[in-house]
C-alpha cells in the first residue's frame, strides 16, 4: 500500500478569505463555457405537455389564484387536484410570466440551478471532510478535494439532460434543495451554539421543502441524513447502530408522509404496469443492470454512450439475459462491502450507499420507464468524492518527483477538459430538436419512439415524405418493448392517409392496426370515429365512442369527437355539454369552440354562436370553417361591417383557388366539420360583399 506524502504545494481553505469566492467564480466560469451553448436550445419531448401546452403554468398575473393553480401542474378533474411537484411548476409559471415561451429565460434558470447545486456540493463536501471522523485523513486537502469533486460532478456529461432539457429542471431543483439541506444539516449538527443550530436547522427544513416540492425522489433525503449521521458523524459502530435504530422510524415515516403529501403519483401506481412492456418482477430484475450501466456512464461518459432514450433489454428471468444474475450478485457484493467497511472506509462506503439509496424510488417498484440519464443527478452527487480523494492523494504522493507530479496533474487536467468538451458537444446536440432525435435514432436504431419524434419534427417542418418514411420504419420495429409506440406510429400514418384524397381505406386500416398494437389508444379511436363521420355514418361513430369513452372521461380529443357526433345525430345539447367540458380542460383548442358555436346556432342563440366561432377563429386565424360559419352568422344578424371583413379574409385564405372550387372542397369535408358549408349561399354572400366593397371604393 503506497504511503501518503504531504505536498508542499500551497493550499486554500473555504474558511479563508477568498477561498469560497475562488471556488464560486471558477465553477461559474467553467460552467458558462461548457453550458453557454445551451441557452438557445429548443423545446423537447415532455416540455410541451408540462410547459408549452400546459395552461396551468401560463401565469398572466402574480395573483394568488394564478400562482395556486400553477402548483397543481397538469392535474385536472376528475382525477382530482393534488400537489404535483408544485415548486417546479411554479418556477415554469414565473418563467412564462416574464418571457412567455421564449426558451432563453428557461435555460438561464436551469443553468443557475445547476451552478447553485455545484456550489453547495463543494461547501457540503468541504464541511464533511472537516468532520472529526475525517479531518485527520483529509482535512489538510479538504478544499482541493471538495472543489475537484464539485467540478467532476458538475461537468460530467451525464448531467446534460437534467440541465439542458427544460422540463428536467424538476430533477435539478430537487438536487439543489437536496444538497442545500445536507449542507445546512452538517452545519447545524456541528454548530457550537444553540441559536446557530436552530437557525441552520430552519435553513435545512426550508431546503428540504424545496427538494420535496420539486420532485418526488427527494423523499429519500431524511434517509440520506440518517445514513450520513451514522456513517460520517457518529461512526458506524455497533453501539451507534443500536442507538439510531430506536429512532430510525422517524425519518422513514417523514419520508413516506411527505411523498404522499406532495404528490399523487402513488395513487393507483401499480395500474400503470398495464401499459408497460414489463411486469413488476421484470422491472425489478432489469433495474440492477440499469444501475450498473449508470455506474459505468459516470466513469466512462463518451459521446457514443449518451442519448435521451436508451435501448435496454428487459430481464425476463434471472438468466435471461445471463448478465441479470451476475449484476444482481455484483451489486449485493458492492453493498455488502460498503456496509462491512463503513468504519474503515466511511467516505467510500457513504458514497456507494448514497448512490444506490437515491435510486430506490425511480429504480424499484414504481412503473416508470426503465432508464433515463437525468435520474443520476442526485445519486451521483457524492459519487466523485472518493475519486477526487484518489486524484489529490496521487499528486501528494509524487510531490518528491515534481516531473511525475506535473505529468499526473496534466493528465487529470486533460481528463477534466475531455469531460467538459464532451458536455459542450452533448449540449450542441441536445439543444436542437432535429439533432437530438437524429442522434437518438443512430444510437438506438431498434427503438420506435425516437423515430416517431424525428418524424414529428419532419412533419412540422413540412418534410412530409421524410416523416412518412420514419413512421413506416418505426412501425416495422416489431418488438415487445415497442408495441405501444408501434401503435402510435400506425396512428400517425392513419392521420396522414386520412388527410389524403382517396386514402380513406388505408387510414382505417392504420387506425385498426394502431388499436391492435395499443389497445384503447384514444387518438386511434377518435380516428376511426372520424372515418365513420366522413362516410356519413354518425350512428356507427357514436357506437364506437360510447364503447370506449367511459374509460377516458377527460381525454379532450375523445370529448371533441363525442361533441361532433352529437351534432351529426341532432343532439345539440349533449354536443354543447361535451364541448364546454373540453373547453374547460383545454381552452386553447379551437375545435370545442367550433362545436359549441354550431350547437348554439342550432339552439337559436346566434350571439353565443358568434362568440364561440370568433374565439375559434382567434385561436386559428387560418380556419376556413370558422370564417364561413361567421359569414353565415354575420349575414343573418345584419352585422355588415364584420361581414365585409370576414368575406375579405375568405378571399385572402382561398388564394388563387377559384371561389366555387374552394367552397366545394370545404363542403366535401362536412362530415368531419362542425359547420356544414352551403357552397351556394356562402358564394352569393361573399360575392355580394365583394361587389359592395368595390362599389364603395369607387
Description of the molecule:
- The protein is an all-alpha fold and 698 residues long.
- Among the domains are: 24-43 and 101-266 and 374-425, no CATH class; 555-698, Serine Threonine Protein Phosphatase 5, Tetratricopeptide repeat.
- It contains 33 helices and no strands.
- It has helices at 19-35, 47-52, 64-70, 86-99, 103-129, 132-138, 142-154, 160-164, 169-189, 194-212, 221-234, 238-245, 249-262, 280-299, 323-340, 346-357, 385-397, 402-430, 433-443, 448-460, 464-475, 483-498, 504-517, 522-534, 538-548, 556-568, 572-585, 590-602, 606-619, 624-636, 640-654, 659-668, 679-697.
- Helix 5 (103-129) packs antiparallel against helix 7 and helix 7 (142-154) crosses helix 17.
- Mean pLDDT is 87; it is low at 1-10 and 76-80.
Descriptive keywords:
mainly alpha; 33 helices; disordered N terminus; 698 residues; single chain; Serine Threonine Protein Phosphatase 5, Tetratricopeptide repeat; elongated
